[in-house]
């Protein structure tokens, strides 16, 4: 066996609520999946879903702090339902999509909004606006075998004790089965993939010292402090 040039990095994992660790492979994110958020960002609710990615090592777990990222003065919060894939599949039928889900968590899609705005205007990729270090705080994963497959329930984000975002999973333009079926036409979903499913309205800026606490009814919570 060939020697590695350097020691491989430790695998990224998310704690499972009832014990064990979920090894993260890829992180896919759905853009513009709640109508009010689509409108607040000035876009058309009739557009089909689209996706971007974050690197696996952008994940922050255990309530750890998130460093304020460089090259931005407009860091935004986006509270989201996270789907954890437990079974491989490509070109998945919508009726079979939930068979591929291991469980669910609450996550934050942190965004350098000023960089995203520049990228949008120039027609460039969003990578540096979305996929930066520590940009995906995620709570513990609840197995679907324990909580089912949530398709409704309040999704909220509080910053320093003040509510910023409130919506309901039922307001998603594309349901979890629809999203997984659509995405699996383009890539093979593998056990270990995480899909962040979009945010409701109310996104806004945060700064150093702010404490973010997100919750989804029936799923769980996520917490981080910007440092």
Sum this structure up briefly:
With 227 residues, the chain is an alpha+beta fold.
- SS elements, strand count: 17
Structural class by secondary-structure content:
alpha+beta
> What order do the SSEs take from the amino end to the carboxyl end, as H and E?
EEEHEEEEEEHHEEHEEHEEEE
Widest beta sheet: strand line-up: 4-3-14-7-8-11
First and last CA, distance? 42 Å
Low-pLDDT windows of residues: none
Question: What overall form do the CA principal axes indicate?
Answer: globular
* Name of the CATH class: Alpha Beta
CATH superfamily: Fumarylacetoacetase-like, C-terminal domain
Output mean pLDDT.
94
Count of helical stretches? 5
Outline the biggest β-sheet: 6 strands, mixed
Look up the CATH topology: Fumarylacetoacetate hydrolase, domain 2
Structural write-up:
The protein is α+β, with helices and mostly antiparallel strands and 227 residues long. It has helices spanning 35-40, 113-122, 127-130, 144-147, 176-183; strands spanning 13-15, 21-23, 27-31, 50-54, 59-60, 75-77, 79-85, 101-108, 111-112, 136-137, 142-143, 154-159, 162-168, 194-196, 204-206, 211-216, 220-225. The protein has a six-stranded mixed β-sheet with strand order 4-3-14-7-8-11.
């Amino acid at each position: 066996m060939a020697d590695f040039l350097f020691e491989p990095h430790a695998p990224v994992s998310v704690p499972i609520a009832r014990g064990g660790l979920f090894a993260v492979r890829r992180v896919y994110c759905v853009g513009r999946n709640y109508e009010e958020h689509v409108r607040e960002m000035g876009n058309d609710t009739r557009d089909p879903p689209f996706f971007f990615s974050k690197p696996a090592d952008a994940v922050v777990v255990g309530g750890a702090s998130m460093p304020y990222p460089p090259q931005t003065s407009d860091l935004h919060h986006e509270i989201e339902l996270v789907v954890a894939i437990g079974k491989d599949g490509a070109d998945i039928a919508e009726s079979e999509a939930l068979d591929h889900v291991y469980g669910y968590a609450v996550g934050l899609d942190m965004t350098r909004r000023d960089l995203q705005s520049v990228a949008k205007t120039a027609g460039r990729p969003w990578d540096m606006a979305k996929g930066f270090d520590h940009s995906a705080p995620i709570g513990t994963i609840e197995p679907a075998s324990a909580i089912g497959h949530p398709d409704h329930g309040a999704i909220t984000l509080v910053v320093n004790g003040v509510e910023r975002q409130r919506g309901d999973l039922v307001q998603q333009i594309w349901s979890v089965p629809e999203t997984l079926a659509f995405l699996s036409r383009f890539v093979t979903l593998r056990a270990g993939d995480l899909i962040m499913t979009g945010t409701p309205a109310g996104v806004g800026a945060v700064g150093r010292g702010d404490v973010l606490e997100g919750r989804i009814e029936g799923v769980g919570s996520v917490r981080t402090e910007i440092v």
